[in-house]
Amino acid sequence: MLSQKTIEIVKSTAPVLEIKGTEITSVFYKNLFTNHPELLNIFNHANQKKGRQQTALANTVYAAAQNIDKLEMILPVVKQIAHKHRSLGVKPEHYPIVGEHLLQAIKQVLGDAATDEIIEAWGDAYGVIAGVFIDVEEEMYKETENKDAGYRDFKPFIIAKKVVESDVITSFYLQPKEGGSVPTYMPGQYLSVRVTIPGEEFTHIRQYSLSSAPMDDQFRISVKREAECDPQGKVSNFLHDQAVVGSEIEVSAPAGDFYLEDGDSPVAFISGGVGITPMMSMLEQVAKSTPERKTAFIHASRHEGVHAFKGDVEKLMTELKNGEACFVYENPREESSSHFTGYVNKEILKQYVDAGTECYVCGPAPFMKAVIGTLKEMGVSKVRFEFFGPAMDLSKQESVTV
């Protein structure tokens, strides 16, 4: 338990983190990887270069500091991060290393303002926060391990099949190297893929949504080739260009708190770009288990060339008793290839969604911000969403309800 004095010190210094947080975490990561380069086998290098990981950590630390006397308030955020940590293979022994370098970074950036009393208080607070993460993650490790066909860490898989789904997305069917079945999962969850790329010093891990309903003996992920971003996606390009049928990669067990909930209320899957991948597993599950459920599938793409799974969605709609699909293209190549041209807006959403619809949203950040904001304006109370990569603002965003 933290003393009242420690709580007061941490909460009183929390505003400094809002101002200096990203600077502190940037120094933290630089020092951490200088002293412990082996941790680059876990962290996403691209997110480091873009500054996304630094911002996400700063938001997390700030949220924890604000709520240090009532950490249960940020438990949904803790669980969201813990899912990612479990999927990446983060272990208890990593936390003291992180804590040491975080305190050093606070001292380095704040200088004399970071008195011994403040550093000691933050050290005590970090110990409590780390303990919460360690306990939650251990529960997740055990739950994963105890499932039928479950396992704790990464496991070797073989690429059994590659299927081109669009100009930029390819599906990979993954089977355990030793054969046998795979653990089941909730439609919408993801797994981590760990690869060794020729010429690279460290392994690379990326998380990809499972793009089909659960299968007995294999997983399917559908990967967008990230060729237009800077830096380019090393893992996605490696999988597209160098990984072949028969190639071996390592895969973690499924994780994530974004998944289709049981129920019979109207449901809408709203996606943009590669955000369609978790929606496919959800749509397949609805078709399998509750085909009478009122279902809308709204997907936005730049044009039909980059639109994956169009035929699959249309086929699944024929299996639903009350299903509608809507495709929106920003710049269609053919006049009749989409239902709407432009962007997903209120006029489109109102045709498929009402206040009682359960909505699932995934896609690029600007797309999600616009769609979620519009749904709120429409009075939709249940909106679940997933960010690909570090969450934008963990002190404000939740993956459950907005």
Automatic annotation (TrEMBL):
E.C. designation(s): 1.14.12.17
Keywords (A to Z) from UniProt: Oxidoreductase
Keyword check for Oxidoreductase: yes
Domain of life of the source: Bacteria
UniProt keyword annotation of Oxidoreductase present: yes
Record's protein name: NO-inducible flavohemoprotein
Organism encoding this protein: Rossellomorea vietnamensis
